[in-house]
Amino acid sequence: MKNNKKIYNHFPMKLFMKISDLINKEKIPSSIRAYIIHKNKHYFLCNGKLEEGFNSKQKIEKNRDSVLSIFSKMSFLFDEIIRLRIIGFQNDKSGSELLYLLNLIPMNRKIRTLYDWKVFDPKFTQVLSRLFDARNSIVHCISLDDVKYVPDEDISLSTNLGFKQFSKNLEKAWKDLIEIYKIQQSKIELN
User: Fold this and answer.
1) What pLDDT, on a 0 to 100 scale, did the predictor assign at position 144?
2) Do 108 and 29 share a structural domain?
3) Is residue 191 part of a domain?
4) Given CB 3.0 to 4.6 Å as the disulfide criterion, which of 14, 37, 48, 159 pairs with 30?
């Protein structure tokens, strides 16, 4: 625990004070589940352990695994935003049950829910919907070459220009989602 102390000074001040107190006691309760982003540093606190989270900057390569990896990370943040709004940072049976339910909900319904809750604005919702439509095609194809991305008109991911526009929009959506997540996490108190 002692060698992890230096990374805690990246947390938002409210969280830092609470977590700092727990670290000084060298006991992080398993009742806390928190994905924390502060100054481009990501941390995941769960089951009494602190681990590094995702990188703020994601490099998207022109291959299926790389593309699906960032969508997976975005999906995780959607679920964490929903968790924060419903149960905060608690990690108990209700949190496990909520995660179970979230795994059953299609991605487009999660995006719509976050829009309805005014977490996402209409433009960001539209961008995400179009990106996740492409993601659904990617899941069912062996190669990115078979996928069309439709931001305004059909763009084939098989072309360098098409993939460049897709990855640019995906990287921007990732950055925007991180900023939205930071706003949402700042609204929750760690009890």
Assistant:
1) 92
2) no
3) no
4) 48
